[in-house]
Design a protein that fits this description.
Length: 222
C-alpha cells in the first residue's frame, strides 16, 4: 500500500493506523510506503493524477485501487489487520458506534476547523465577515470537543478499552485544537487522552516521518 499524506493533516490518522496495523500483524501485514507531500504539491499535476481533488489522504491499496477520504482509508487499514483491533467486528453495535463517531469527526468537526482555519474560502477578503465566521466556527468546535470528550469511556478511549481508528482521528483533531484560543489543554479528559496517544510508539513514528510534533502553528498547518 502507498499512502499520500500532508504533515499533520487528516491523513495523519491513516498514517498512524498503518503503523499500528503493521506493529500488530507483523510479517502478515502488507508492506506500505508513506509519501509525505509538501504543502502545495497536492495541487500539482502529479498528485492530481492520483486524486483529482488534490486532497489527502489518498491510499493506493494492494489491488491498485485509490481510496480517498479518511473514513474509507481508516476502515480499509483496520480491516486489513484485524489483529490490531483498530475496528470492532462488522455488524456489531460497537462497529456502528465507530462509524457514527468517525462520520462526525471527518465531516462536521473537520468542517468546523476549516471554517476557522480557512475562513477566506467562506467569507472572502472581508475582515468583518471573516471575524464573524471564525467566531461561529469556534463555538462549533467547542461544542464538538466537549461532546467528544464526554464520549471517552472509563478506559480512556472512544470504544471499549482499546485504541480504534476513531481514537486516531480524535487525536488528530485534538492536536489541531492545541493552538485554538481555547486550546485542547482546557478540556482535561481530552488532553489526557491526547497525551496518552502521543506517547505511543506508532504515533511517534508517524509524526517523526511527517516532521511534526505536538506544537501546532497558529494557522493550523503542519
Amino acid at each position: 500500500m502507498k499512502l499520500y499524506a500532508l504533515p499533520g493533516a487528516t491523513s495523519l490518522a491513516t498514517h498512524i493506523a498503518l503503523e499500528m496495523a503493521a506493529e500488530a500483524a507483523g510479517p502478515d501485514f502488507c508492506r506500505f510506503e508513506v509519501v509525505v507531500l509538501q504543502r502545495g504539491q497536492n495541487d500539482e499535476p502529479p498528485f492530481r493524477r492520483i486524486n483529482p481533488l488534490g486532497t489527502v489522504p489518498a491510499l493506493v491499496t494492494e489491488e491498485g485501487v485509490v481510496l480517498t477520504e479518511s473514513l474509507a482509508t481508516l476502515l480499509h487499514v483496520a480491516d486489513k489487520a484485524p489483529q490490531s483491533r483498530l475496528a470492532p467486528a462488522p455488524n456489531s453495535p460497537q462497529r456502528d458506534r465507530l462509524h457514527m463517531l468517525l462520520s462526525m469527526m471527518v465531516s462536521s468537526v473537520h468542517a468546523a476547523f476549516q471554517l476557522y482555519r480557512r475562513t477566506e474560502r467562506f467569507a472572502g477578503g472581508d475582515e468583518a465577515a471573516q471575524a464573524a465566521v471564525q467566531g461561529l466556527a469556534l463555538q462549533r468546535i467547542d461544542r464538538y470537543l466537549n461532546l467528544l470528550q464526554a464520549e471517552l469511556g472509563v478506559g480512556g478511549y472512544l470504544i471499549g478499552e482499546h485504541v480504534s481508528v476513531a481514537d486516531l482521528m480524535l487525536f488528530v483533531t485534538a492536536r489541531w485544537g492545541a493552538s485554538l484560543p481555547r486550546p485542547t489543554m482546557q478540556y482535561p479528559r481530552l488532553w489526557s487522552f491526547t497525551q496518552q496517544l502521543a506517547a505511543m510508539p506508532a504515533v511517534k513514528r508517524a509524526m517523526q516521518v511527517e516532521g511534526i510534533g505536538m506544537t501546532v502553528p497558529p494557522n493550523g498547518l503542519g
